[in-house]
């Protein structure tokens, strides 16, 4: 298999999860799509020739940088425009929660689906309340199942920082989620 085909398969395998991660970070569909697309372009441009085992953490480093840049731009914009709230589109209209609208392939009963939906809504709200670095580490470690070393590489920080931010994020989520925490 050629490197181009391997790269396409790699990008296809992570695009959905990368989008959900970006959306969870910003709450805006278009911004999340732009961040993922930009991360993919930059990744292919700069790292396509790197060994396959390095692709995942390198891609997530680029994506995390895009998320951080977006967060900074939004903070400046929000100072002037006021806070629009989570799950708003560019026109300020409310959007569906991505966790609520994700398809359930597990064949759950409506009651089970409602419980899961409530738990995901609580998780989304709690994630939005975390500081950006804690949110990033939590998503990389818990959602993407990156190792401490891979997460450190993706975030361009030390392994100790990853451990500290992850520990603080888990504690904060446990405190905030209470009954919703598994």
UniProtKB/TrEMBL annotation:
Any one GO molecular-function label of the UniProt entry: DNA binding
GO biological process: DNA-templated transcription initiation
Leading EC class: transferase
Chain positions covered by the region annotation Disordered: 89-111
Residues that span the membrane, as ranges: none
Top-level taxon in the UniProt lineage: Bacteria
Keywords: Nucleotidyltransferase, Sigma factor, Transcription, Transcription regulation, Transferase
Catalytic activity, EC: 2.7.7.6
Annotated InterPro entries: RNA_pol_sigma-70-like, RNA_pol_sigma-70_dom, RNA_pol_sigma70_r2, RNA_pol_sigma70_r4_t2, RNA_pol_sigma_r2, RNA_pol_sigma_r3/r4-like, WH-like_DNA-bd_sf
CDD domains: Sigma70_r4
Domain RNA polymerase sigma factor 70 region 4 type: 122-173
Ranges where the RNA polymerase sigma-70 region domain occurs: 15-75
Keyword Kinase: no
Family named by the database record: Belongs to the sigma-70 factor family. ECF subfamily.
PANTHER family xrefs: ECF SIGMA FACTOR, RNA POLYMERASE ECF-TYPE SIGMA FACTO
Protein name: RNA polymerase sigma factor
Species this chain originates from: Oceanidesulfovibrio indonesiensis
């Amino acid at each position: 298999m050629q490197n181009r085909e391997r790269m396409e398969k790699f990008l296809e395998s992570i695009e959905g999860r990368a989008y959900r991660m970006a959306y969870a970070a910003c709450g805006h569909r278009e911004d999340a799509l732009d961040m993922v697309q930009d991360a993919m372009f930059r990744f292919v441009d700069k790292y396509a020739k790197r060994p396959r085992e390095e692709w995942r953490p390198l891609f997530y480093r680029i994506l995390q940088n895009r998320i951080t840049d977006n967060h900074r731009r939004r903070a400046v914009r929000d100072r002037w425009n006021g806070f629009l709230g989570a799950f708003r589109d560019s026109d300020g209209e409310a959007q569906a929660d991505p966790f609520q609208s994700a398809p359930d392939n597990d064949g759950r009963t409506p009651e089970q689906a409602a419980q899961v939906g409530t738990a995901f809504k609580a998780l989304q709200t709690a994630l939005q309340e975390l500081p950006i670095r804690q949110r990033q580490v939590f998503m990389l470690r818990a959602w993407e199942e990156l190792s401490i070393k891979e997460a450190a590489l993706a975030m361009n920080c030390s392994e100790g920082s990853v451990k500290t931010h992850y520990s603080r994020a888990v504690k904060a989520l446990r405190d905030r989620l209470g009954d919703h925490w598994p």
